[in-house]
Amino acid sequence: MYTFGPVRSRRLGISLGVDLLTPKTCSLDCIYCECGVTTDLSIDRKSFFPIQNIIEELSRVLDKNPKLDFITFSGSGEPSLSKDLEKVIKHLKNHYPKYKIALLTNATLLFDPTIRSGLLPLDLIVPSIDAVSVEIFQKINKPHPKLNIDKILNGLIQFRKDYNGMFWIEIFIVPGLNDTIDEITKIKEVCLNLSPNKIQLNTLDRPCQTNWVKPASFESLLKIQNLLQPLPVEIISFSKKINNNTDKCLTINQTDDGIIAILKRRPSTVEDLSITLNMKIVHVHKSLKVLEENGLIEHKNESRGIFYYLAFNAKKTDL
Asked: Could you tell me which residue ranges the Radical SAM core domain spans (predicted)?
């Protein structure tokens, strides 16, 4: 299953997710990652699945003409590690041109001019910049040994010179590490060179791989927002939840598959699943009960409430 959704995203509206990787393959091992510890820390690109299978699944979904704001490459690792990414983007542009295509990326492979060129058809790219100083970058993002922050930022700057689509930057704030005036000032200098259409401030909203990481306060994010001005900055971690008064017409199997597809990539509360799947909470509860009774998922009490996990992922946050 290479697609998940369509889901309701607080950033991208109605989005069909596309995951071209096996979990958890990434070039970074970020301490705040909601997908858990990186088990395959790599900068080597490869095909993780037969590309024809991916295209066939996309066709089955998109031939039904779903209402989407974006088709989004994201998932359980760094999407650009799939050497099929550019081919799938090209296929979508050629066969489903009415849909906008987005990429959520850590930007670590944009030093490669071939990759940069292949991503130019994107309608939206959202690279993350959590740090500029070497020490903070190493502490937050724990990169592959062959990566360094200067190489990453130079690649991103080169990409921006050629890219004409929407360009947003995500900054994930980890209190005590990248929330200092010094670090935010350094990030601001880089962002000014990149001329983003938007900067999104984010912080911890669900369990991550490291227990000591805590969310930044709203007051702290407001101060950072002010420090980054005049850049266009929005705080997304405290954004208003999407109102959910209606319910999709999904079968029980479709509901269960949707829940599993989401929990495969991130732990979620009942409320999270209700918003993402656009379903009434009572129906989500019923599916969760059945899935848990069958041993497919389990739950844990966290500071923000009860979070559900795939059963084999539940202990990844106990670090």
From this structure: 2-253
